[in-house]
Design goal:
Elements lengths: L5 H11 L4 E5 L7 E4 H17 L7 E5 L4 H12 L3 E4 L6 H11 L3 E4 L4 H8 L7 E4 L13 E4 L21 E6 L9 E5 H15 L6 E4 L6 H13 L2 E4 L4
Parallel strand pairs: 1-11, 3-4, 3-5, 5-6, 6-7, 10-11
Antiparallel strand pairs: 1-2, 8-9
């Protein structure tokens, strides 16, 4: 089947070339972390099931606070697999801005990856509409409001032989809400469908003539629309994204 939803880009490569390298995380010391398409797809499937188990459904907004990493990709594609829309948050934003993004988007679930605690903890007190927080080790986070249910990132692992999720989604379903920089006013959320993101990815693959042997060094954040475009276009081509966060 030709992919028509964003997460199906990863599923398609994982199905016919599972060991192909998708993500390389450049390391400050030691060897880089390498993740195949199968690795990312399986982790995204587990995240999708975790979200569904906590009431996330088609069209729901799920906020994502993470630096560029395999964890970001797993959460992002997992949100889409669950039928929800990803709301990527600027990791450099102040707590008040994060509160605005979450409240304005209507997200009731927040996925927070490692190394986001500094901005996450003070922002949680400003999120009365938040009901679920997924984090690597939520027990170590102080001052979590009583109304928020915490879920460990590794909870609810799906069996390796579990049938993939096949939810009834269409390409006009909402895939992401991306907030503008706010350089001329308060940031606003741009709503992007699967169709919009797929059209963008395919256009880039076509005019750059990208293929499975191509690799890109990604220094732009994935929460930024151009950074997300690098991720999806190389998934579309079956290529590799090398993540470098030291800029």
């Amino acid at each position: 089947m030709t992919p028509f939803l964003v997460h199906q880009l990863v599923e398609a490569v994982a199905a016919h070339a599972p060991e192909r390298e998708f993500l390389v995380e450049a390391a400050v010391a030691g060897e880089a972390g390498r993740h195949s398409y199968r690795d990312v797809d399986r982790a995204a499937e587990r995240m999708a099931r975790r979200l569904i188990a906590h009431g996330v459904g088609r069209g729901d907004r799920v906020a994502l606070l993470a630096h560029n990493s395999a964890a970001y990709a797993e959460a992002y594609y997992g949100i889409l697999k669950a039928g929800a829309a990803a709301v990527p948050l600027n990791t450099a934003a102040d707590p008040a801005s994060l509160q605005h993004f979450v409240a304005d988007s209507g997200a009731e679930v927040l996925i927070a990856a490692a190394r986001t605690e500094r901005v996450l903890v003070p922002a949680l007190a400003r999120m009365p509409g938040l009901r679920v927080l997924i984090a690597p080790d939520p027990d170590k986070l102080p001052l979590i409001p009583a109304h928020v249910t915490t879920v460990r990132w590794s909870d609810g692992e799906a069996p390796a032989d579990a049938e993939p999720l096949r939810l009834p989604l269409i390409d006009r379903d909402l895939a992401s809400v991306i907030y503008t920089s706010g350089s001329t006013g308060r940031p606003r959320g741009a709503a992007l469908s699967h169709l919009a993101l797929m059209t963008n990815a395919r256009s880039i693959v076509q005019y750059l003539e990208l293929g499975p042997d191509d690799r890109v060094l990604a220094v732009l954040p994935f929460y930024y629309v151009y950074g997300k475009s690098l991720l999806n276009s190389h998934a579309c081509a079956g290529g590799t994204v090398v993540i470098e966060n030291r800029f």
